Amino acid sequence: MSNGAAHVLAQLLTALDAGQINVIDLTTPLGAETTVIDLPPMFALSPGLTLTEISRYDERGPAWYWNILNLGEHTGTHFDAPVHWVTGKDLPNNTTDTIPPRKFIGPACVIDVTADVEQSADFLLTVERVQAWEQQHGRIPAGAWVLLRTGWSRRTSKEAFLNAGPDGAHSPGFDKACSEFLAKERDVLGVGVETVGTDAGQAGTFNPPFPNHNTMHGNGKFGITSLVNLELLPPTGALVIAAPLKIVDGSGSPLRVIALAPTA
Ligand code: MN
Predict the structure, then answer these.
(1) Would you call 213 a catalytic residue per the annotation?
(2) Rounded distance between C-alpha atoms, residue 48 and residue 162, angstroms
(3) What is the model's pTM?
(4) What is the CB neighbour count within 10 angstroms for residue 260?
(5) One of 74, 78, 84, 217 is an active-site residue; which one?
(6) Which residues pair with 168 in a beta bridge?
(7) What residues does the ion ligand 1 have nearby, CB within 5 Å?
(8) What would the pLDDT profile of 184-218 be if each residue is shown by its tens digit?
(9) Over the stretch 119-155, which tens digit does the pLDDT of each residue have?
(10) H or E stretch at 58
(11) Please, which residues have CB within 8 angstroms of residue 78's CB and are 6 or more apart in sequence?
């Protein structure tokens, strides 16, 4: 068996070298301008990134350049661990340092709702919509990432990305029953989105508030936000590698999300 596995890895490297498999970066650049979520004023805010130079080939360090990072765990393209939500606080292996690393690799199921989101920024993915996708592409396997392709990553300004109105943000997400279906009936790894959070912009007004966080993390599932380049992925057949920093007792972390996909 070990020979067979070694052969699979050798084949993978050969296919990468031959350009038969594309390495697709699903990550947004992480900089001082990276947009973070806005919360109502009664809640504590998470800071975006500040990069402070330690030295840059100068008297502070003549041959080396390095910086200090200051940022919230949930900045830019980032991972939500189950402990992030109160519903997941007592689960085993619920922090960034204790999640088994096997869970950092999984197949991608990409559900394209771009046209729906163009019609309504408040679009919610439903169970019916997932089942229609499964009719076309097959059942979502256990341990898959469900990636919600909305076209939202084309909104590059902070205003368009957060899309806040006087009544709060308007951005797409998941119907509560859909989150429950994906977590319990399909046993997914989690959901990935192009928006700033894995709940819809209006989800603070839902019952319960933020039902996708509530359900996913309460069932030990993960989230990834602010993904880009989902339009480069096939509906099925890509592999996602998404490993957060091993922050001790971390609730999440920025990460580099990589997909391996057969060359079209
Ligand atoms: Mn988060």
Answers:
(1) no
(2) 14
(3) 0.97
(4) 18
(5) 84
(6) 165
(7) 74, 80
(8) 999 999 999 999 999 999 999 999 999 999 999 99
(9) 999 999 999 999 999 999 999 999 999 999 999 999 9
(10) strand 50-58
(11) 224, 225, 226, 244, 252, 253, 254, 255
